[in-house]
Amino acid sequence: CVTALGESVRLAQQRALDAVRQVRFDGAQWRSDIGHRAIKH
Question: Which of 24, 34, 35, 38 has the fewest CB atoms within 10 Å, measured from its CB?
Answer without folding.
Answer: 24
